[in-house]
Design a protein that fits this description.
GO molecular function (chain B): asparaginyl-tRNA synthase (glutamine-hydrolyzing) activity; ATP binding; glutaminyl-tRNA synthase (glutamine-hydrolyzing) activity; transferase activity
Protein name (chain B): Aspartyl/glutamyl-tRNA(Asn/Gln) amidotransferase subunit C
Number of strands of chain A: 17
Number of strands of chain B: 3
Radius of gyration of chain A: 30 Å
Structural class of chain A: alpha+beta
Shape of chain A: elongated
Largest sheet of chain A: 9 strands, mixed
Catalytic activity (chain B): L-aspartyl-tRNA(Asn) + L-glutamine + ATP + H2O = L-asparaginyl-tRNA(Asn) + L-glutamate + ADP + phosphate + 2 H(+); L-glutamyl-tRNA(Gln) + L-glutamine + ATP + H2O = L-glutaminyl-tRNA(Gln) + L-glutamate + ADP + phosphate + H(+)
Strand content of chain A: 15-25%
Strand content of chain B: 5-15%
Largest sheet of chain B: 2 strands, antiparallel
InterPro entries (chain B): Asp/Glu-ADT_sf_sub_c, GatC
Strand order of the largest sheet of chain A: 3-7-8-11-1-12-13-14-15
Structural class of chain B: mainly alpha
Strand order of the largest sheet of chain B: 2-3
Helix content of chain A: 25-40%
Oligomer: heterodimer
Number of domains of chain A: 3
Organism (chain B): Leuconostoc carnosum (strain JB16)
CATH class of one domain in chain B: Mainly Alpha
Helix content of chain B: 25-40%
Distance between the termini of chain B: 35 Å
Order of helices and strands of chain B: HHEHEE
Radius of gyration of chain B: 22 Å
Chain lengths: 479, 102
């Protein structure tokens, strides 16, 4: 990759849908996948005379993201109208913040593939509203669903600090994780909850001025973003090498060909005719409010990873797996807080629980497993009450919502460690198998394996293998 | 006064942003009218506003906010019946294929 004599400059504007209960300016529910236009009212439809009131929760979510990205929360916010005509928004303007972003001067420290840390500065963040969804029919009409219209978005505008398509990819992945751990959004790519507008320019090394930038909008996959940028930096280099000029334009990325094509020559910002929104009251954010929001902000993924490794003795890779989603990390924290052994809890979540989620194509929160049940099962293993083998059955049961101890009792899944009981079986088995004792004394290790097999059969698999093995060797030595 | 005079091209551009189509006579008419209006603003610009905070809102209200509680007003049927055309619970509009809107 790379373009020889040119250096690449990339900036990203990322839009993330917030998982609020209601929309930014109307109380209509925010819920993906409902029947078309189910979650709409006169405000969402842009009727005249409506009285929109901004959602406090959306603003607080915006503040959370600003805090998580090390930005300054603005003490004063007012709203602006960004005007454009398109059927996905019948108001004909988007309510946004152009002059008073909720957060400014943030940054995200991005770990690149070679392990170096790159600080990407974040210029500003805006709380604004999403548009509805247009579907183009093949009958010359478009069909509009306004369920998404008015869903709160947080827009995160980076400085042009990103120097390659791979850096852009790493930034997006780590930005997504940072947002996941604010609890503001699940940032589900397949549901379009996170989309990126990218701009890219190239310039000869050593040049003091940026090249003309080209923009690509609304890309909802990190891989597509990387592919689009790879194509675009090569295209621009070829244009410049052949003596051409880069036009400021908006291009569209086409995945099947992994190329970009001209969509339109860019309109100026003036064309959006921003002006102050007269229908919404300005918002003053004082330090106390910021502190209240900061107190609700979940601990970040990187902080949790550090705690897992330093305090709980979890391997760094495992700590990373546990922090891939906020739900998983919260679940792990709750399991450990409930008294489960930290390593065993990590192993179960990374291994069996993840395998279960993959097999059944469900999210952790969609399963019937609770931290208390997982920790309950782990405590049964730790205390020797059940064997790890028996735990397999208990695991199946807790995944269907059963209480582990009750299930183990009901199904006779108890490990017998009582030496008196075990010795009774050992004496019986040894008395019945004099040949095996001879074999053992003759140095045949396999003989103990046979004897253990007999003992397991006799105990119906309930004998504690560790205790039994020890007692058996002691008894053999006596004979 | 002539410095605020708006050109015919600018009027045509603003009209296209507002999805309005003017014929030549209308374009001429609106260019003159808009120029006159802008010239009135020129008079206003004579007032020194260097240290005056712009007025963004005419009420003294601040932090008039709503708690994040969902409430479905169940207006779908009425809203769709008021749309000029709808099908399968969707609003039906002439196709616009120049891009993704914004």
């Amino acid at each position: 990759m790379g373009t020889g004599n040119f250096e690449t400059t990339i900036g990203l504007e990322v839009h993330v849908e917030m998982q609020t209960n209601s929309k930014l300016l109307s109380p209509s529910p925010v819920h993906y996948g409902d029947e078309p236009n189910e979650n709409t009212n006169v405000i969402d439809f842009g009727y005249p005379g409506v009285l929109p009131v901004a959602n406090k929760g959306a603003l607080e979510y915006g503040m959370r993201v600003a805090l998580a990205l090390n930005a300054t929360v603005s003490p004063f916010i007012r709203w602006d109208r960004k005007n454009y005509f398109y059927p996905d928004n019948p108001k004909s303007y988007q309510t946004t913040q152009s002059q008073t972003p909720i957060g400014t001067n943030g940054h995200l420290d991005v770990t690149l593939t070679d392990g170096t840390i790159k600080r990407v500065r974040i210029k500003e963040m805006h709380v604004e509203e999403d548009a509805g969804k247009n579907t183009h029919g093949d009958d010359g009409y478009s069909y509009v669903d306004l369920n998404r219209q008015g869903t709160p978005l947080i827009e995160i505008v980076s400085e042009p600090d990103i120097a390659s398509p791979d850096e852009a990819y790493a930034y997006l992945e780590q930005l997504r994780q940072a947002i996941l751990f604010t609890g503001v959004s699940e940032a589900k790519m397949q549901e379009g909850q996170m989309r990126a507008d990218v701009n890219i320019s190239i310039r000869p090394y050593g040049s003091n001025e940026y090249g003309t930038k080209v923009e690509m909008k609304n890309i909802n996959s990190f891989t597509y973003v990387r592919n689009a940028l790879i194509f675009e930096e090569q295209r621009q280099a070829e244009v410049l090498r052949s003596g051409g000029v880069i036009q400021q334009e908006t291009r569209r990325y086409n995945e099947p060909t992994k190329s970009t094509m001209l969509m339109r020559v860019k309109e100026g910002a003036d064309d959006y005719r921003y002006f102050p929104e007269p229908d919404l009251a300005p918002v003053v954010i004082d330090q106390q409010w910021i502190s209240e929001v900061a107190a609700e902000l979940p601990k970040s993924a990187s902080q949790r990873q550090k705690d897992y490794v330093d305090t709980l003795g979890i391997a760094p890779y495992d700590a990373e797996v546990l922090t891939q989603t906020l739900a998983m990390a919260d679940f792990y924290d709750a399991t450990v807080a409930d008294g489960a052994d930290a390593k065993r809890a990590a192993n179960y979540l990374i291994g069996d629980v993840n395998a279960y989620m993959n097999k059944h194509q469900v999210e952790l929160q969609e399963t019937k497993l609770t931290p208390e049940h997982l920790s309950g099962m782990i405590k049964l293993i730790e205390s020797g009450t059940i064997s790890t083998k028996q735990a397999k059955q208990v695991f199946e049961a807790i995944m269907t919502g059963e209480e582990p101890e009750a299930f183990a009792k009901k199904n006779g899944l108890v490990q017998i460690s009582d030496p008196t009981v075990l010795l009774g079986w050992i004496t019986e088995v040894l008395d019945n198998n004099p040949q095996s004792i001879e074999d053992f004394k003759g140095g045949k290790d396999r003989a103990t394996g046979y004897l253990i097999g007999q003992l397991m059969k006799m105990s119906k698999g309930q004998a504690n293998p560790g205790v039994m093995n020890k007692l058996l060797l002691e008894e053999l030595a006596k004979r | 006064m002539s410095e605020t005079t708006i050109s015919k091209e600018e009027v045509a551009h603003v009209a296209s942003l507002a999805k309005l189509a003017f014929n030549d006579a209308e374009l001429e008419q609106f260019t003159t009218q808009l120029s006159d209006i802008l010239n009135i603003f020129n008079t206003l610009s004579e007032v020194d506003t260097d240290n005056v905070e712009p007025t963004y809102s005419v009420t003294e209200n601040i932090n008039h906010l709503r708690d994040d509680i969902a409430d479905n007003w169940h207006q779908k049927e009425a809203l769709l019946s008021n749309a000029s055309s709808s099908a399968a619970d969707l609003i039906k509009v002439p196709a616009i294929l120049d891009g993704e809107g914004k």
